[in-house]
């Protein structure tokens, strides 16, 4: 029974990850991101309602919690959010997987969540 439950959990997690990928849109948005040791400015390459991909030569390590600040195109205010690095790639892997890091939002304010949802849905049309 235990193994069956674990397999179901794994499938559910894969389905959630696939759904998040399907909702991503390509973007080029300047962002500031930092932890207690380092501050960087680079570009968000894709974004969704739950996270983003930042292309950066020296990505932060998996598990790092970052403060992130960026402004969506046509927005009047910056989004400030904490995010957790869920994967990090310091070297490109082939043509399609550039170096950078995937970041999951941790504390997105309701109004920022709505702005992101509207931005993503508008760009997907």
Number of helices: 2
Helix content range = 25-40%
CATH architecture name: Beta Barrel
Q: Spell the H/E element sequence.
A: HEEEEEEH
Helix-strand makeup class: alpha+beta
Q: Give the termini distance in whole angstroms.
A: 44 Å
Unreliably modeled segments = none
Largest sheet: 6 strands, antiparallel, barrel
Strand order, sheet with most strands: 1-2-3-6-5-4
CATH topology: Thrombin, subunit H
Oligomerization state of this entry?
single chain
Alpha carbon gyration radius: 15 Å
Please give the domain count: 1
CATH class division: Mainly Beta
Q: Categorize the overall geometry.
A: globular
Mean pLDDT across the residues is 83
Architecture overview:
This protein is of the alpha+beta class and 125 residues long. It has one domain (25-124): Thrombin, subunit H, CATH 2.40.10. It is 29% helix and 38% strand. It has two helices and six strands; from the N terminus they run αββββββα. It has helices at residues 2-22, 110-124, and strands at 25-34, 39-47, 51-55, 65-70, 79-89, 100-105. Strands 1-2-3-6-5-4 form a six-stranded antiparallel beta barrel. A hairpin with a 3-residue loop joins β2 (39-47) and β3. The longest helix is centred in the N-terminal third of the chain and has 21 residues, at 2-22. The radius of gyration is 15 Å and the shape is globular. The mean pLDDT is 83.
List the helices and strands and how they pair.
Elements: H1 2-22, E1 25-34, E2 39-47, E3 51-55, E4 65-70, E5 79-89, E6 100-105, H2 110-124
Antiparallel strand pairs: 1-2, 1-4, 2-3, 3-6, 4-5, 5-6
Features:
single chain, about 120 residues, alpha+beta, Thrombin, subunit H, six-stranded antiparallel β-barrel, 2 helices, 6 strands, globular
């Amino acid at each position: 029974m235990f193994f069956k439950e674990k397999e179901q959990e794994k499938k559910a997690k894969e389905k959630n990850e696939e759904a998040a990928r399907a909702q991503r849109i390509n973007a080029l948005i300047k962002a500031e991101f930092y932890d207690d040791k380092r501050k960087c400015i680079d570009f968000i390459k894709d974004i969704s309602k739950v996270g983003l991909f930042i292309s950066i030569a020296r990505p932060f390590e998996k598990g790092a919690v970052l403060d992130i600040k960026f402004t969506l195109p046509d927005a009047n205010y910056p989004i400030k959010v904490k995010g957790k690095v869920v994967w990090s790639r310091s070297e490109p892997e082939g043509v399609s997987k550039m170096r950078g890091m995937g970041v999951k939002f941790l504390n997105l304010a309701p109004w920022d969540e709505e702005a992101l949802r509207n931005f993503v849905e508008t760009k997907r049309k």
